[in-house]
């Protein structure tokens, strides 16, 4: 019970990594508020699974690309639970597309969701933590794509590098308030974001073959690392980035 009676907020938590993180935090004793954009059924299921663990949960609908969504999510969470201890910025999109004919609207939407959304969400959560006066933990879901390139991800990789950089800078800006800021960098995790891309059997097998642990990742593989960074086990960890990729990054040869 590493997060007993903590209040955890998770964005983009109706499916994938966000949902797994929300449930994983509840398994360790947290009450959880989730943000979601459109998946009503997924959000309801996440809430039901958390409540089945004996913890409280709410789901707050909102598009993280809209600035006002951040303050609304934080306020709804405080109204429900009275405080925020941990904030997990997870919401993100990756509509695969070639570089030379990248539509401006795809580029701009990806930036607004992944980077601008992260900035305003983290800012809103941090302000609440500062007002409370007892510190907190912020974890951002970046990506191995913050460290390596992708020919069909030229709009996506800069946003994930930005999220990683945001955690480094906020670690400095918020350290004096006792707020720790870290990022996790997943490798290839099977989620809705890459379902179509991994439908190519040859590519799927190639990707799995590049991973020393011999398999693609699952959303639940991120839950443990996120719980660790949220907990007091990581009380002296801030500004760090934790690769969760089965060894893919180090497998150059």
UniProtKB/TrEMBL annotation:
It comes from the Bacteria. The keyword NADP applies. Gene3D superfamilies: NAD(P)-binding Rossmann-like Domain. Pathway: Carbohydrate degradation; L-rhamnose degradation. Its EC number is 1.1.1.378. It is an enzyme of class 1 (oxidoreductase). It catalyses: L-rhamnofuranose + NADP(+) = L-rhamnono-1,4-lactone + NADPH + H(+); L-rhamnofuranose + NAD(+) = L-rhamnono-1,4-lactone + NADH + H(+). This is L-rhamnose 1-dehydrogenase (NAD(P)(+)). It comes from Caulobacter vibrioides OR37.
């Amino acid at each position: 019970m590493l997060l007993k009676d903590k209040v955890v907020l998770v964005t983009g938590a109706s499916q994938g990594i966000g949902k797994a993180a929300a449930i994983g935090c509840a398994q360790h004793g947290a009450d959880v508020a989730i943000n979601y954009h459109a998946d009503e059924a997924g959000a309801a299921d996440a809430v039901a699974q958390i409540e089945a663990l004996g913890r409280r949960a709410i789901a707050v609908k909102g598009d993280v690309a809209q600035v006002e969504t951040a303050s609304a999510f934080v306020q709804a969470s405080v109204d429900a639970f009275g405080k925020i201890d941990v904030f997990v910025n997870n919401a993100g999109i990756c509509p695969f597309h070639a570089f030379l004919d990248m539509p401006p609207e795809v580029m701009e939407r990806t930036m607004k969701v992944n980077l601008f959304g992260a900035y305003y969400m983290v800012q809103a959560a941090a302000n609440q933590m500062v007002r409370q006066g007892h510190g907190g933990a912020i974890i951002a879901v970046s990506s191995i794509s913050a460290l390596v390139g992708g020919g069909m991800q030229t709009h996506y990789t800069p946003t994930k590098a930005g999220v990683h950089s945001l955690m480094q800078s906020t670690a400095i800006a918020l350290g004096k308030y006792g707020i720790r800021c870290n990022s996790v960098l997943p490798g290839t995790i099977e989620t809705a974001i890459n379902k179509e891309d991994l439908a190519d059997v040859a590519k799927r097998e190639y990707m799995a073959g590049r991973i020393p642990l011999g398999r693609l990742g699952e959303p639940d593989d991120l839950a443990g690392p996120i719980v660790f960074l949220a907990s007091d086990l990581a009380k002296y960890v801030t500004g760090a980035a934790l690769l969760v990729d089965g060894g893919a990054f180090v497998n150059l040869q």
